[in-house]
């Protein structure tokens, strides 16, 4: 019997997840279904949104099921094919999640061109995280000349937001991150005009210093203090792309809201929540714009890669603590 | 010497304004300027937004000046004219505020057709409050079939919002107000599908009962508990027209924000602040749609009229406490 390994959600975390919320199980290797493929995974994605869906309450989609494999984006090699559309040896993207082998229906697998870009890019800058950044700038009605502030700027989404805004003619791009190294990375390597470590002092003060003329767009990845500071800094007709709030996913009690909502009125602000899943139709135009920028080295990205499927739970916990720079991935 | 009377902002209120924050002063009657008119006021408007501008901090516009006449919408009769555009006896709308007589430059006076509608309507349903409702429904991207919740629904703006939404095909219109009489008025006279007294219990519970299928649009006039409840009730792609927050204008400390902002993400909500002053270009289309509805009795309005210029400060204080149904006006 050939074996495979799966990582399952063992229990719903209360507050910060722990390793005990996952179980690692050896199982019989699956067979490809009629018209499907068997994929041996090469790399998989851990993402902040997964924390929301580990809780019982419905977030934007049904919660992950306890006892089932953790879903999520992954890339692997076809090792058996019962589909005319896929040949053995081809590399595909799918969302069957944290497992060594996945039986994937043909319609849920997307062929990846590993000559055009490194395959890991398809889980990051050229994947849903890149598309999230791309869609968010549209939702925020970003325009040339805007000053943009992005929180979690050294993360997979934030780093694309900042660079893309800059490439498209932002007047000034400011990022926040959680370490001096990340701040240096933003300014020295990604071309941010300014960046600060939110652990160094109040966000409002650091943002005001970095954006003396205020901001026009805020790309929200963090929540809490960041949101309140951004609302205070936004200029008239400012816009917030409300993408995620990683600081709040572990909350067990209602979190304080921004105390300055009246500024939404005074400054005619727009706060707009969005989810990348509603914007997948943008993918062709997204790839047409972004892939060349990546290839030319104009849009840079980093990855934090952890080796070994069994380390995926720890990688995920580390991601929630901000241990990553750029996309957090697990290589099998 | 002919005299006139002015009501001035005597001091900036801290918390709830009091009568001591105003002074009533008899002055020499003004002369019309070159090319202007002298207006004897007949009726003037007191509005919640005035409270924001009585504070020192800049809100959306510079604060009212201490020692100066309270600005605001007013209607009066031309008693002297030095303008070819205006004849003695004509009735004009202007914004020279709380005074018995106003010298108004011609370009700041607008002739009122008192045959088309009662003149007080031009300070309410056909004036800036009506236009606020009209613009807010546009900002909220209201569509036929939406369920709409409006707070402060018995007020000048809220009562137009609810009726207009209903006339345009809302599936369901729900209002909140601060007394049983107002609630009855909304349902029995204005055609709201449901209404509740926010003082009777938690807004979230009353709203959930009134909107079992959730809401699509929230028109914000109140703030605080109302906003949090509305965010919880909004369906996917729901929209908030953030028009005013009367519950917070007297706040001396930062007010708690909505603790459920994560719903903005889960439900892809849009919160949009707006000010009627940015939307005056809508006035022709607004009047073309609304004036006939008012004339035909399809769009009803109430006024709470206080007699005597000297009672304007008390009328304003009462307005902030919710003593009015419909537009609060002072008749001279």
From TrEMBL, chains A, B:
It comes from the Bacteria. CDD domains: PGDH (cd05288). GO terms for molecular function: oxidoreductase activity, acting on the CH-CH group of donors, NAD or NADP as acceptor. This is Enoyl reductase (ER) domain-containing protein. Pfam families: ADH_N_2 (PF16884), ADH_zinc_N (PF00107). Keywords: Oxidoreductase. The keyword Translocase does not apply. InterPro entries: ADH-like_C, ADH_N_2, ER, GroES-like_sf, MDR_fam, NAD(P)-bd_dom_sf. Residues 17-330 form the Enoyl reductase (ER) domain.
